[in-house]
Every structure is written in structure tokens, then in C-alpha cells.
Design the sequence.
């Protein structure tokens, strides 16, 4: 399943994650920085995806947020974007079914620092119960998630997540 928005792409593979669970990849794209309005549209698409694929997503999935092609918004607009996430959080059913989160921040230390800070802010306002792993590419993120699933039998960084068999 692929959802293409004006400034993002969401792909969902019902069995593409570790141990055959689902895999959702969110990839911002475009030549301009996202705005709070863009984030609102994105969150609407996330809600629609959750409703349209409730059964598949309910079996559990990993989420990969690939910010490697993100045009970063100005630091002054980040609080507005964060407030959209606070006011329009992802559906509770999605949050309950998420087994792990990986964030692709690219190779640049500057990007990694900015992305880590934005992720921390989003985690705080959404009361995220998972500790994301950070990677430099989607391949590295997939490898980290597979490693964690195969070596722990579950995603130990999560609170109340169900086990994932490999």
C-alpha cells in the first residue's frame, strides 16, 4: 500500500517487518520545508491508513521515519509543527500496535542532532512509550530492527509491546 501526499510518501507492507510483522515507512519529500498545515494533512493520511488497514496494522508493525530527504523547517516553525502533532496525535490503535520505531537521520551529524531533538519533542507531546533507534539509511534501520527482534525475542525498548518471533 502506498499513500502519496504533497510532501510525503507512506508505504505499508503487511509482512515486510522483522518476523513477518508489518512495516510502515514514512518519507517526507519535496523541495520545500513542511509547514504545520502539511503535518496536519500527513496526520489525516495516517489516520485514514489506520482505518483502512486496521486488521493488518493491528497485528503489529515497525515504523521507519526516513528524514534523509527532508527539507528542514526553520527553527521558529518547529513549535507550530509540534503543536499539530500534540493536537492531532496518531490514532491510539496505531500507537498500541507499533512494536518499534526507527528514525533515518542520514549521515550528517547536524541532521542527526536536529532530527533527534525533534523526535524528543514529538515523543514528549505524544507520550511515546517506545525508544526509537536511529540509523543512517533505511537498510541500516531494517538491519537494526531485525537484529533487535532476533536477539531479544521482542522489542525490549517498548512498554507493553507484544513479542515478535523471528
Sequence:
Amino acid at each position: 500500500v502506498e499513500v502519496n501526499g504533497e510532501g510525503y510518501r507512506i508505504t505499508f507492507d503487511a509482512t515486510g517487518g522483522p518476523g513477518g510483522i508489518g512495516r510502515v515507512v514514512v518519507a517526507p519529500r519535496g523541495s520545500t520545508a513542511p509547514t504545520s498545515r502539511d503535518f496536519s494533512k500527513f496526520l489525516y493520511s495516517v489516520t485514514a491508513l489506520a482505518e483502512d488497514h486496521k486488521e493488518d496494522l493491528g497485528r503489529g508493525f515497525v515504523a521507519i521515519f526516513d528524514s534523509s530527504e527532508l527539507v528542514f523547517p526553520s527553527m521558529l516553525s518547529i513549535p507550530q509543527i509540534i503543536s499539530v502533532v500534540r493536537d492531532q496525535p496518531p490514532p491510539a490503535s496505531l500507537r498500541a500496535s507499533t512494536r518499534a520505531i526507527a528514525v533515518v537521520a542520514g549521515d550528517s551529524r547536524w541532521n542527526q542532532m536536529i532530527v533527534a531533538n525533534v523526535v524528543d519533542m514529538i515523543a514528549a507531546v505524544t507520550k511515546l512509550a517506545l525508544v526509537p533507534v536511529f540509523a543512517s539509511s533505511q537498510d541500516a534501520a531494517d538491519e537494526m530492527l531485525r537484529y533487535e527482534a532476533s536477539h531479544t525475542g521482542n522489542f525490549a525498548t517498548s512498554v507493553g509491546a507484544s513479542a515478535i518471533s523471528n
User: Anything to note?
Assistant: The chain has a mean pLDDT of 81. The helical segments are 36-52, 54-58, 78-87, 92-97, 109-126, 138-152. The first strand starts at residue 2 and ends at 4. The CA atoms of residues 15 and 92 lie 21 Å apart.
